[in-house]
Amino acid sequence: MTVMADIEHPADSGPLTVHDLEGMPDDGRRRELIDGVLIVSPAPGRRHQKIAYRLYGVLEAACPPEYDVLAAPFAVHSGDDTELQPDVLVGLDEDFTEKDLPASPVLAVEVLSPSTAIHDLNTKKAVYERLGTGSYWVIDPADPTLTVFELDEDGHYQQVAKAAGDEAVELERPFPVRIVPRELLGRLG
Asked: What separation in angstroms does the CA of 26 have from each of 30, 73, 102, 112, 138?
């Protein structure tokens, strides 16, 4: 993951805003803004995409009508200085606009890549915790492994489940769903 240095934004003009993202090139890279700092990720690989899209299908099939499931790229906004694009997200249907989710998702999922792992496991996890996102899932496609974090009563993430390979995990939040990490790889598993 790299921070862009070649954008037209004077160094003395302050942090970037969500508005600044709109003028950036559509070159296949994911651009996210965390507290005014631009994070740029390269296009994801095949295993990453296979897992994200198959997980989307599992969640969509289990999703009750009061929620909606979307896959990246789709923006989650918090103010003018933060825009995240989780690989898969679940939000209350009533909170979505046609353009973005200007409220906290109920679930954000990140599939790790070599270039994003540190940010996904630390920076983005902390931002979702701060936003009050009830569940945060991280999937390592190498194993594959699913790690599930949920907010506790104090608003801090606690690991509540972990499943690897052919292990199944039955989750209740944000709605009942069964996940087997290796099945998310499809033919690649």
From this structure: 9, 12, 22, 22, 26
